[in-house]
Structures are given as structure tokens and as C-alpha cells.
Amino acid sequence: MKILVCISNVPDTTSKINFTDGDTKFDTNGVQFVINPNDEFGLTRAMWFKEKQGATVHIATVGGPSVEPTMRKALAIGADEAFRINAEPTDGFYVAQQLAEVVKNGGYDLVIGGRESIDYNGGMVPGILASLSNMNFINSCINLEIDGNNVTAVREIDGGKEKLSSSLPLVVGGQKGLVEESDLRIPNMRGIMMARKKPLSVLEPVDGLKATEDKKFDKPAAKGQVKLADSVDQLIDLLHNEAKVI
Amino acid sequence: MSVLVYTESEKGKFKKNALEVASYASAVAKMMGTTVTAVAFNSTDNELLGDYGVSKVLNVKDESLATFNAGAYAASITQAVKSTDAKVVILSSSTDTKYLAPLLAAKLSAGYAPNVVQAPESTSPFMVKRTAFSNKGFAHTQIDTDIKIIGVSNNAFGAHESKTEITIEEISATSDENMNNTKSVEIDKVVGKATIADADIVVSAGRGLKGPENWGMIEELADILGAATACSKPVSDLGWRPHGEHVGQTGKPVASNLYIAIGISGAIQHLAGVSASKTKVVINNDPEAPFFKAADYGIVGDAFEVVPQLIEKLKVFKAQNG
Ligand SMILES: Cc1cc2nc3c(=O)[nH]c(=O)nc-3n(C[C@H](O)[C@H](O)[C@H](O)COP(=O)(O)OP(=O)(O)OC[C@H]3O[C@@H](n4cnc5c(N)ncnc54)[C@H](O)[C@@H]3O)c2cc1C
Ligand SMILES: Nc1ncnc2c1ncn2[C@@H]1O[C@H](COP(=O)(O)O)[C@@H](O)[C@H]1O
């Protein structure tokens, strides 16, 4: 089985978010970039398929040279080979088209992406990619088993979960549950050394549709002071008469 | 050229978010001087949409679509967009809709803006405001394609009545063999309980509760308020609560009217996921807990004392206020 994991390079979850250039760009100053958490769960599941079912695991990221340290980390975790598509990932549709080209040329059976990236929160790349590549698609995937061509998966639904059957070739939008938090791996020294030698090819982008543009950013208004209640009675009164939420 | 909205139903009845997206679609249609057509699947209370500005319902009647199927639903919605020559498609932010939206975007070569929090800032160019960076910021996104898809955030725009003459047409499903072959095997869903996505009130607890055996009072509090229960990430990682309850930046987003956080410190990743909630209440025994800086109301106190009191007082309050 040939697997492609789509890795998006995102600000660490603890990052303070600021904007620059007249609020038209995300300010990367002092920000640490990491593998998108949803993708890390997917990558770790891919490692399981590699170790238990002999799969080959490639990764792909659409981005400029600055994303390479994050890609090397994915290689250090155990991916075999990497592709960087040299373009700014400003629009989900465009990103999906670039990845579709990698999928077409690579003949992958399974493509694992994340339910959403935690930066622009598009939640669209895996689904668009599946559709452009004529592959089946399961989103918010929290369990994935593959036996030959047959797929059994569980996805999260509002208020519960749904078990699905499908077949390869397949794209999943994954999240925690694909593996547990405790299964995540911190790259060790040997992995990091090996990752330096693994192939990371840079591909030029194909022409694509840029469907959306983020023109401007801003931040939520600062929060007022918290009102501390001295008693439960006072809290109920505030919630009823002031906030009018109960 | 109308505005098309996909209105979700469950067992034939429209979900709360269907009325929100219908209201949103109606606002967009007014801006563009056109009308709203809704697509629904096997719904039985179609007239209701007329109260929220919808003038036509295309109701897909098909037994095989009794449960949601992303590919099949997307195929029928695509067909409805084409037959009505719609230029704007309005969707909700439910898990199901977020599953089908990208399939629809690809089929229609449409730009898709998810998590939109208000009516478009302009329709030419088409600009919407949406949350980004897990609620730590907003993006003003321009959609440049001929057909535009908007995902409206839960509980952001609200449902607004506006009576409209409505016609209902039953249509048959459109199938598309290239569209996503997956089959539902089994659905495991809590019935009769509010879900984090839909609930007006969410009661959430963290590691301060010490262990899973102490969740009885959290559930009781939620019951009295008709609320959904949620938890912080470590609580689900420790297996104290199911993963589906984990809220925050890497879990489910919460956009309820009231969010009550009990024994949760208020780490940045937690706050990011719950900040879209309108009123936030914190119960924590540490006055320095970061959550107090992000909350509207709070009680500094021991959860094991405060919560049982709150339960007793709320019972009395509910008895008096219905
Ligand atoms: C990549 C990444 C992603 C993450 N994503 C998320 C996410 O999506 N959601 C999330 O929640 N976290 C997330 N986290 C974890 C986050 O950083 C915090 O560790 C977590 O939110 C803390 O959970 P907690 O508040 O329940 O526990 P703690 O931080 O241990 O806080 C417990 C709180 O309970 C209070 N307390 C103790 N006893 C009592 C008592 N008797 N009565 C009242 N209060 C009491 C304490 O004062 C304390 O404030 C993420 C972390 C990382 C690294
Ligand atoms: N620039 C990118 N390069 C590679 N994969 C990406 C990129 N952006 C998004 N993805 C994948 O698509 C998923 C969803 O991202 P998004 O649609 O941006 O929310 C991510 O979790 C990744 O798996």
C-alpha cells in the first residue's frame, strides 16, 4: 500500500496571533511552526500501516522553503520520502489542486490529511483533493482499518459516531482518534539523522484556480473584566437578569 | 439566479441550524435582490422554512437517503445548484455539512469560505468575515469564483423570522457514480441529549474534577440546564470522558450561548476552541486560573462545594421560572 500524508505547517498551538503589513498578513515573528496536530495523528496512523502492513509513506506540503523543517520532522517520525510544492498555500482549492497532481503522479492508495488545519481552518483540502482525484472520502475520521481494498472507518458525527465501509483509493480527513495522544512519537536522534538523508523533492506548482483570498485580518475585541459572584444565588441572578442566558 | 441553502433535517424535522442558515440565506438574497431556494432531504415540515424567508423548497424524496451520505447528498445539492442557476450556496457548520462542503466546492469549482460569522460585508466583490486561527482571529475573505459557498458558524447569525410565500417541490435524488462511495454501517448516537454542536448551554469540566467518578454532578447540572456535557483535552486523553466531548482548538469548537467551565485552567488551546461562546462562566478554586481573564462571570471556590449548591439552587430557580 502506498500512502501519502498531507502535512500542513502551522503555528504551534500556544502561539499568540498577530497580523502585519496593515493587517493583511499573519505575523510569523517569534512563532514556532509545527506539523498540524490533526496531520500528526494521521502521520502516526500511517506509521502503523507501515510497520504492520508494509506500507510506504510519503508526505507532501504546499509551501515555500520555510516549511522544510516541519517536513523533516515528519521524515524523522518515519515517513520515507517528501514532496514540497513550491507555492504559497493561500487558498484551499489551489492547495488541493497541487496535491492532486502529486497524487496523480504517485499512484497512492490512501491519502491522509487532517480534518482542518488550525491556522486558516479551511477544512476543505482533503475533500476537494478526493473529488479532484476521484477517490473516496471520509472526513473527521477517528478510526481507520484497511484489509486489502476494503476500508472500515469510524467518523465523528454531532452527538456520536458513525461506522462506515468504503474502498481504496481513499482520502481521509483525520483527527485525534486515528491514534491516541499517547501514541504520538517524538523524533529520536537516529530518526533525525536519518531524516536528513531522506529524499525531499521540490516540485513547481501547476496552474490552478485561486478561489478565495484573505484580504484582511483582525482580532476579537478585548474582553471586559470578569464579574466574580460571592454566592451561587448571585451567579444565578446575574445569568438570569443580566446575561439573560438562563 | 437565486440563493440556495441546504437545510438539514433529522427524522424529517429541520434542525435548529436549518433555520439559522435559512435566515442567513434570506439576508444574502435581500442584498442581491433575489430569492431563496432550499434543498432538503426527506423533510416533512417544509412550510416552516417560509417563516424564515425561503420561497421555494426542493425536497429530495428518497428512502435510500434516510441517513446522511456525503457523496449522495453532495450530488443532489450540486444538481439543485445547477437547476436553479444559484450563484451563492449557504451551508451550516455541522459535522455532516463540513463533510460534504468540500465535495460540493470541487464539483462546482466554487470558492468555499467556512466559519462565517456575519452577513457578507459586500456581494461585489463578495466578502465575508470568518473566524481563523481557531477563533484567535478573523479573516475577511473575498470569494472570486462564479459560484460561492458559505459555511455559516453555529449560533453566530441566529434565526430571524420573515414570512414568505413558499412553494414545495418534491424532486428525486441525483446520483453521481464518481462521487464518494461510502456506506453507513452503524450509527452510535446519544438520543434525547443536547449535543455540543447544537446546545444553547454547554457544561464542561476539567482535570480539577480529580476523576471520572465525579462526573455525576456535572451530568446532573447539565440535565437541569438542558445542556450538553464537554471536557478539556486531558480529561478525554485520560479516558475519563469520551473523545467526542473534548473541546478546544484540537477538539470540537463550542459556540453556545452559555459555557460553564468547572475545574478547567483555561489554557490557550482550550480558550481558542470555546471563545465563540457568548457568555462564559468559570468555577475554579484558584483565583489566578487564566480562565478568569477570559470569562464573563466566575466563582472562586471548590467545585465539590459550588456545583452541588448550584444544582440545588437551580432546581428551585427552574421550578419558579419554568
Ligand atoms: C498541541 C496541543 C493541543 C491542545 N489542545 C487542547 C484542546 O483542544 N483542548 C483543551 O482543553 N486542551 C488542549 N491542550 C491542553 C492544554 O494545554 C491544557 O493542558 C489543558 O487544557 C488543561 O486541562 P485542564 O484545565 O482540565 O487541567 P489543568 O490545567 O490541570 O487545570 C485544572 C484546573 O482545575 C482547578 N481545580 C483543581 N481542583 C479544583 C477544585 N476542587 N475545584 C475547582 N477547581 C479546581 C485548578 O485550579 C486548575 O485551574 C492542548 C495542548 C497541546 C500541547
Ligand atoms: N499547504 C498544505 N500542504 C499540504 N497539505 C495541506 C496544506 N494545507 C492543508 N493541507 C491538508 O489539508 C488538511 C486540512 O486543511 P485545511 O483545509 O487548510 O483546513 C490539513 O490537515 C492537511 O492535511
From TrEMBL, chain A:
Annotated keywords: Electron transport, Transport
Organism: Maribacter arcticus
Protein name: Electron transfer flavoprotein subunit beta
Pfam family of the protein (one): ETF
Domain of life: Bacteria
GO CC, any one term: cytosol
Electron transfer flavoprotein alpha/beta-subunit N-terminal domain residues: 23-212
InterPro entries named in the record: ETF_a/b_N, ETF_b, ETF_beta_N, Rossmann-like_a/b/a_fold
Similarity-based family: Belongs to the ETF beta-subunit/FixA family.
MF GO annotations: electron transfer activity
From TrEMBL, chain B:
Record domain Electron transfer flavoprotein alpha/beta-subunit N-terminal: where: 3-191
GO biological process, one term: fatty acid beta-oxidation using acyl-CoA dehydrogenase
UniProt KW keywords: Electron transport, FAD, Flavoprotein, Transport
Cofactor binding note from Swiss-Prot or TrEMBL: Binds 1 FAD per dimer.
Top-rank lineage group of the source organism: Bacteria
One GO MF term: electron transfer activity
Coiled coil segments of this chain: none
Presence of keyword Chloroplast: no
Residue positions binding FAD: R207, G263, I264, S265, G266, A267, I268, Q269, H270, N284
Cofactor(s) it depends on: FAD
Family membership noted in the UniProt record: Belongs to the ETF alpha-subunit/FixB family.
Name used for this protein in its record: Electron transfer flavoprotein alpha subunit apoprotein
Organism from which the protein derives: Maribacter arcticus
